[in-house]
Design goal:
Distance between the termini: 21 Å
Structural class: alpha+beta
Radius of gyration: 23 Å
Helix content: 25-40%
Oligomer: single chain
Shape: globular
Length: 517
Amino acid sequence: MDFAQSNNLSASDPSWESAIRFSCPEPRTELGRALSDLLGADKVNDSDDAKEFHSQDKWYAKALPEVVIYAESTEDVAKVMKYAYTHRIPVYTRGAGHGYVGGCVPVHGGIALSLMRMQACHIHPLDGVAIVQPGVITASLQAAARAEGWDYPPDPASLKDCSIGGNIATNAGGPRCLKYGVTRNYVLGLEVVTATGEVMRCGGRVHKNKTGFDLVGLITGSEGMLGIVTEATLRLIPQPRARGMLAAIFPNFAAAAAAVQGVFAARFLPSALEITDSFTLQSARKRLGDHVLPPGDAHLLVETDGSESTVMAEIAELRALLSQMGATDVREAMDEAACEAFWKIRREFSYSLRDTGLTKLNEDIVVPRSRLVDLVEFARTLEQTTGLAIACFGHAGDGNIHTNIMVKDYDQLEVRQRADTALDILFTWVLHNGGAITGEHGVGLAKKPWIREALGDVSLQTQRAIKRAMDPHNILNPGKWLDTWHPKSAFGEQVAMAFLHSPQSLRCCQLRFRFCV
């Protein structure tokens, strides 16, 4: 397996559409010909271009499948799985390819099963549900729901590019999950093709259902390792009548984090609460201009929604609260267009970090809200120790802070090893502070080395037993975190443990770090 930067296709890019519908030449391989006979020639492609496109996601691992399948129905998926089960062929399900952890990378070759032609979407307002196929783009579902006066709240940052199938696979979140919850909270029912090619329905169209085990919850977040979702019944909510936002600048991160606690202490529950550190702000000012973000080393976004009168009252109270807690500049948005302008700036933060020319290792760690300041202080110390810049921003309301390790010359082996050791230190600190190594991206390949420590032996073995029961031949997304895992850097863990006892100990490890990796 080698490493490379991924392409930057999106659902609005014509090349994205052509990538899932380009003409399929005559198959060159025995597997390609067999599947072409089974499904039809227009759904099978083993050309070099097709295999290259389906070899990676937004992470840096890359591996070529033997053949690409463009499924158009549940029946297509069932046929593929029955064939793969009989012949013990690995199958890697793929959505829009916008994951950040190598979750869809076909590390053992086999079949790359694209679901992006499955894009049916039906809104049922009387039932408060949407019935969708996995290839539907998240933003398209939201637009369809809002056209009927309803809403689908989960809003990952890549919502204009990512698919519902991918969201279900990773149990995706987003800024609004603070108030409204993550993808799992909206999945009422699933149609799933099993590893043996059988079709299973779990859950359903009703909003309450306690019949048997929670198989919907088991499949949601399972990263393509327990079954293939071919249809989802999703809960919708009435679209809020109004929304308002505040964008506040603070002199430092500690003051902004204190304001986060102040918002909750004052008994507010915003729909979104986003925090940004100084490194990210500096990068954003270079990209967008100083006038867009006033001077200050921390940025806080607060959004609230509800009735018009409630939003107006809450925005006024929140504005006074933020000023009282040290905000040096507070700007407000009271209509849809103005709120979207604030969010547009927020979405530019990630691109601003890419403008630095450094490789951005986007880690979606989660810490208890009370540890936000500790996390950023730890990140600053880790910068000094490793010589690697670290940018922190994200969902302050639920402690899901995207901690981005910024690496120059990541394609060089020695540099990559240094970055991996820095991740050892970061993840060990997070776990020892009651946090989690992933809040919404999933484990995939990227976080595989830390899975035993993150889950514990009993939980890991239990999850492996579930995998064996549902996929006895291990053909669904094999090679990911439930298989073997890579050993962590012993030095990285040693340094992290030293910091847990004494921050000064970590600083003293700086010289040793530079010569030991």
